[in-house]
Each structure stands twice: as C-alpha cells, then as structure tokens.
Amino acid sequence: MGRWGGAGFVTIPSLSAAEILAPAPPGYPRGVSILDVTHLFHTALAAEPERLHFAAHSHHLWPDAARAAHMRGFDDAVHLADEKWGRFFSEVYPACQAGVARTLGVSDPKRVAFSANTHDLILRLMSALPAWNEHRPLRVLSTDAEFHSFTRQMKRFEESGRIQWTQVAAEPFSTLPERFEAAATDGPWDLVFASHVFFSSGHAFDEVFDLLAALPEETACVVDGYHGFFALPTDLGPHTDRLYYMSGGYKYAMAGEGVSFIVAPEGREERPEFTGWFAGFESLEGEQGERTEYDGGAARFLGATFEPTPFHRLQAVFDVLDREGLSVAEIHGHVVALQERFLEQVSAGRAGPLCVDELMPGRSEVSGARRGHFLTFRRSDAQALQRRLLAARVVTDARADRLRFGFGLYQRPADVDRLVERLASLD
Description:
By secondary structure, this protein is of the alpha/beta class. It has helices at residues 17-20, 42-47, 64-79, 84-104, 118-126, 130-133, 148-160, 176-184, 208-213, 309-324, 328-347, 382-391, 413-424; strands at residues 2-5, 8-11, 52-53, 112-115, 138-143, 163-168, 191-195, 220-224, 244-248, 260-263, 359-360, 374-378, 394-395, 397-399, 402-406. Helix content is 34%, strand content 15%. Helix 3 crosses helix 10.
C-alpha cells in the first residue's frame, strides 16, 4: 500500500502473516496479543519509511485522525470566525473533558480543566493554597525524579523564599514507597507532588495514589501523570475526591503540544491568584462585582485564551480509538510485548553495544506492569550513542547518562527486529 509523503509517493510494507501471528515473547501473559494498527498512522510512517521512531515517550507520532482534526480547527476559524468559541465550548471542549474522564474512571467530566501545559496548572494550584495567601513559604514535598519544569520552578521558588522544599530520593525503587510514606507523614505539608511514572527511568510508582490519598485533607496532593496517562491503565475513580491529577496530550494521547489538563477534587473551593478570563467564562456577560468570582468545578483553574486546535486533535484521538475498540489496557499490553521482545534480544547479546545489566529498573526488579512505555539504559556514553543511533535513522533520546527507547502503538514486531539489527551494526 502507498501514501503521499513529503517527498512524493512512498511505499509502506504490508504486515506479513507471520508478523500478524507472532506469538507474545516468552513469559508474557497468555491472551495478550501484539496489535497492528499502522493503518492509523499512514502519514507519519510514510513521511520517512526508513526512520525507526523509538521516542514515543518524547514525541508520539500523530495518527492520521489528528491531521484531519487539525484542519477542522482551521475550518472553524475561517468559517465561524468569532463564533468558533461557541462551538468549541459546546462541543469540542466537553468531548475532551469526557474523554479524559472516561480514560481515568472519573465520574464527573466537569472535574477536568485544561491549559496549554501543566506548568501553568501547578502555578495556579499553588497560588490557591492557604499558605500562598498567608504569605509564608509553602512546605513542598516531592521525589528527586520529577520533570524539569517542576524541579526548575521549585528550585527558583526555593531561591526566592516562596517554598521550603524536601525531596525524597526515588532510588532505590524497591524502598521508595516506605521512604516516601515516612516523609509524607512527617509533615505538615502544603503540597505533596509525585509522578506516577518517572520521566528519568520509566519506573511506575503505583503506590503513589494510595499514599497521597491517605494524607491529611488540608494537604494538596498532586499526581503527575504525564508519563502515565494513556500509557498505563489508571483508575483515578477511588481518589477523585482527594487527589489532583495532571497530564497532557503531548505524549501517549497522541494529540501533540498545547493541551494539558488537571483533574480537581470537589469541595475545596480554591480561588487561584493566577487566573484568567476563562475561569469566569460562564458569568462573563453578567455584572462584575468587587470580588473575583470563579466558575464551578475544575473551571476555576482555567487561564486565558488558548489555542483550540490541539483540542480538536485530542477529541479525534479519543474518537478514532473508540471506533477501533482500543483501550488503554490493550495499548499497554501491546507496548509491553514489544518491550519484552526487545529485551529478550538485548539479553541474548544481539543488540550491539546495549547490555541488559544497564537497564533501569532492572528486569529482576520490576515486571512490565511496573514500567512505563519506555526503557531506560544507564550508560556513560548515552549522549554519544543516541547521536550514533540518530545517524542510523533510529530516533531515541538521552537524558544525562540515560538512553531512553520509547515504544508506541504504531510499532510492530518487525520494527523491534530492525532496531536490534541497527544496534548490532554499531559494533
């Protein structure tokens, strides 16, 4: 089959019968099959057929449905002009709220509010905490493996005296739940923040939900789900009255930049100091009093005007996966099966310079169910090896001494085997 790409008409190899029937790797649970949904990604795969994109954790390739949705955003802007916001807030925005809520097991979609990125959302939440309004330093607890935007902002707040920040070492992972619980119960804390999946290793800190939910009600507890949402099956339902959850569409939700969200518990009645006109959108046409009012639900965390096009893409992803009958659990099973196929060959010494002993967490430490959608190898030459792979048209990424391989819905067993072949050619 073929598809028009940027350089003309290119051919995408069809999946062979052997690949379709390829068994799951040894030790993988029965009943879990490797999917083939490459028909959803024709445009991205045709753009450069020789490229092996193993950076789904960094920039997940977009499905064709996202391209069509991108154009719908343009069409709304030119055909509806100013009236595009009416359709956006009556159709597109609620559909995205509903999609997030379904994915996470949240009963009320109005508990979901969006922004361009999670950095905006954590700032708004912090500005709503009592300590912020009391003009005293916020007591903040996190791990030492949080993403750069959070750690950079906390470091700067610490420098300016806005916070007192304590970090719990994420490693060793085997003792993290006990160590984090001890620190968390040694409060009081104004904000406790921790990732479900650590960006620097892929380790899934599954205990974080129960640990945070058990903390005193006055503590704002946030789970950063950026590497967990749409990757690991996540049921936030039991904790929606207690926890905040933040994530976005840039990674595994395949919607690209510009659409992130917060799930907020009810009953806290926050009044963020950092606020924009969307947070009072429902009362905009009424008379404005002296006191700043906020819309109900999570809408109080909205900011100012944002780009609506990413929401069209996110809605399209929800719609196309629903039509295909694909759940997060099935996507996760597919990814874990590919990861295990890769690790079997690394363990057998077929993957060139890679050694399974460099994997973190190690295979003996965690199962595939306790790992996100990327594999991390700790090596002193991680940056150099990433550049060598890129020259061989294998897209990965490196963070300091950690080389990361991300697996996604658009990959097949043959892609894993080609990755191993290219690694072997580097020796």
